[in-house]
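Justification of resources, computational component.

The compute hours requested in this renewal are based largely on the per-chain cost of generating structure records like the one below. Each record pairs the submitted sequence with a full structure-token output. That output is archived, and it is also reused by downstream analysis tasks.
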Amino acid sequence: VLTSSIIYPNPASEQFNLSLNLLQSAKVTVELYDIAGKKVSTLLDETLPVGNNSQQLNVSGLTPGYYLLKVTAGNNMFNHKLILQQ
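The structure output for this chain reads:
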């Protein structure tokens, strides 16, 4: 279902872009975890259409540091390291 997942810019400050390529329409969930593994936020939870999708996600209220971004669509999952800076 999900063939690629790219985040930019990284490091990010108030927001970042998530670019996804979907082979079929799917519910996409984007969750953010701190370095201790605690879920901090769900940034996206919606069904996206087939093809290239670009989402701008807001992280302005979060503390600067290192995070793990988990992108799930159908049976596919991608993990990204995300650095937040001021």
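The radius of gyration is 12 Å. Residues 33 and 53 are 23 Å apart (CA to CA).
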